[in-house]
Structure to design on (290 residues):
């Protein structure tokens, strides 16, 4: 192992550190590996591009730099399944869901129709019975990762993740309902297909004063590129809005920030938008203010 920065002056030529623990398995291993990979990429002067020749040249260079092999088209990575067909590319986490059901002993549970009870307002009640903190945090963490391919549970997961340190039985019940919903929708995911255009569209919405505990609002958005769903987010606002128009306007602002980032991204990879990005909202007053 090479000497750490700041200690190298104490080492003679050819001296190294003795590695007491391997890199893999440490909390910092993803960051360290990405840093090493980034260094190799920059050394060869590469940037992200959709070019087969450049990709093949990169593979040859990486084979010389690292001990690796080409596994072909992506099929499974970190719990995410990728399927290709004439209809497009479908990503889901079915095996991840089945493993979660087996782990929680809910493989034979009755499926729920929705991720949350309609109009359910979760908050911290006075003198309510607490739930198992370790189990709750573990389940919510798994659901957060699962939301990468399941926009239909993103809002519900965002709600239950707010009670990681003040959890009660009602909160655990909401988590288990999400899992019951997943039982009936384990094969759901996101389909990416060619629709003949690359238009960028953002849809925004907000729930005014939806938090019964502190009356803060939740805003969310999802974005479409070429008719495909690519990003989605639901987050509680940092301040209390005094009207539905204000909270909807803040939601539009979040959507606008996402639109600017997406425009920069698609431009960098060679697909600059030819039309203005459309941001959709259902509040007339917020639209007029915008």
């Amino acid at each position: 192992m090479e000497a750490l920065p700041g200690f190298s002056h104490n080492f003679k030529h050819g001296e190294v550190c003795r590695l007491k623990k391997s890199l893999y398995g440490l909390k910092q291993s993803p960051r360290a590996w990405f840093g090493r990979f980034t260094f190799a990429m920059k050394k060869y002067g590469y940037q992200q591009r959709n070019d087969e020749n450049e990709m093949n040249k990169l593979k040859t260079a990486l084979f010389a730099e690292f001990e690796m092999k080409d596994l072909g088209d992506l099929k499974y990575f970190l719990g995410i399944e990728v399927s290709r067909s004439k209809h497009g590319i479908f990503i889901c986490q079915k095996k991840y869901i089945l493993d979660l059901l087996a782990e929680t002993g809910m493989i034979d549970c009755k499926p729920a129709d929705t991720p949350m009870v309609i109009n359910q307002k979760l908050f911290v009640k006075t003198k309510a019975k607490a739930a198992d903190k370790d189990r709750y945090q573990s389940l919510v963490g798994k659901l957060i990762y699962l939301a990468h391919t399941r926009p239909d549970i993103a809002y519900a997961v965002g709600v239950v993740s707010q009670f990681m340190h003040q959890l009660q039985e009602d909160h655990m019940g909401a988590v288990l309902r999400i899992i019951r919903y997943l039982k009936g929708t384990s094969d759901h995911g996101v389909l990416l297909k060619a629709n003949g255009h690359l238009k960028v569209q953002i849809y925004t919405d907000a729930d005014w004063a939806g938090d019964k505990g502190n009356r803060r609002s939740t805003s969310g958005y999802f974005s479409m590129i070429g008719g495909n769903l690519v990003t989605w987010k639901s987050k509680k606002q940092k301040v209390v809005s005094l009207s539905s128009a204000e909270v909807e306007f803040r939601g539009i602002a979040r959507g606008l920030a996402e639109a600017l980032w997406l425009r920069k991204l698609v431009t960098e990879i060679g697909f600059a938008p030819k039309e203005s990005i459309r941001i959709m909202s259902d509040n007339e007053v917020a639209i007029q203010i915008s």
Q: What stands out?
A: The helical segments are 29-43, 52-65, 94-104, 133-146, 154-160, 169-184, 244-268, 284-289. The chain has eight helices and eight strands. The first strand starts at residue 76 and ends at 77. Residues 244-268 form the longest helix (25 residues).
